[in-house]
Amino acid sequence: MALEKYMAIAGLVLSIFFVAEVLTLFNFMIDPSDNDSFGFEAGPKLYQFISLSIAPATIMMGVSFHLSKRYGSRLNGMLIILSGAIILLGMAYASTMIEDLKPSLVDSSVEMVPLISMGLSIPIIIVGARLLKIRPRKPKKNYLEDGDNF
Questions:
Q1: To bridge 72 with a disulfide, which of 78, 93, 114, 134 should be the other Cys (CB 3.0-4.6 Å)?
Q2: Does some domain include residue 102?
């Protein structure tokens, strides 16, 4: 496998990791422990999840696209599309969980992260679909070389 395929796989894994982190956090926020004195805030945790998983995943998928855009790659395109679909579906489910969260723990970051992530997933899917449509370029014929061209 080439480098771009490994980067697409890493982007897929980091996308799954991000969705799992957000769903786990929201699941905790539905029924946190009764001791409210521990000072839990969801915003910093969500920003940490973004910086550790979805930002590197987006970079990995972008680099994978850039490396394989010249010749096209069905595998890379499918991996990038799958990553975008996982983010879209996972964040759609996370946005339905917001109603069940403890109201004192819900702030603007809890409401905005699923929406922004769903908005980010749509261009990821489009980029993956574009990679599926690219056909390999034919090498240019060099007419200036000496050979049997006459």
A1: 134
A2: yes
Task: Report CA-CA distances (Å) from 55 to 10, 30, 36, 42, 61.
Answer: 12, 26, 31, 18, 10
CB 80 within 8 A of CB 10: no
Q: What is d(CA 43, CA 40) in angstroms, rounded to the nearest whole number?
A: 9
Within 8 A by CB and 6+ apart from 115, the residues are 91, 95
Mean pLDDT is highest, among 71-80, 84-93, 101-110, for 84-93
What pTM value is reported for the model?
0.83
- Residue 88 in contact with residue 118, Cβ under 8 Å? yes
> What is the number of structural domains in the chain?
1
Domain carrying residue 120: 3-29+42-133
- Describe the crossing of helices 42-49 and 108-133 by its angle, rounded to 10 degrees: 20
In angstroms, how far is CA 78 from the centroid of its own chain?
A: 13
DSSP secondary structure letters along 16-47: HHHHHHHHHHHHHHHS--S-GGG---HHHHHH
Residue 19: is its pLDDT beyond 80?
yes
pLDDT the model gives residue 92 = 96
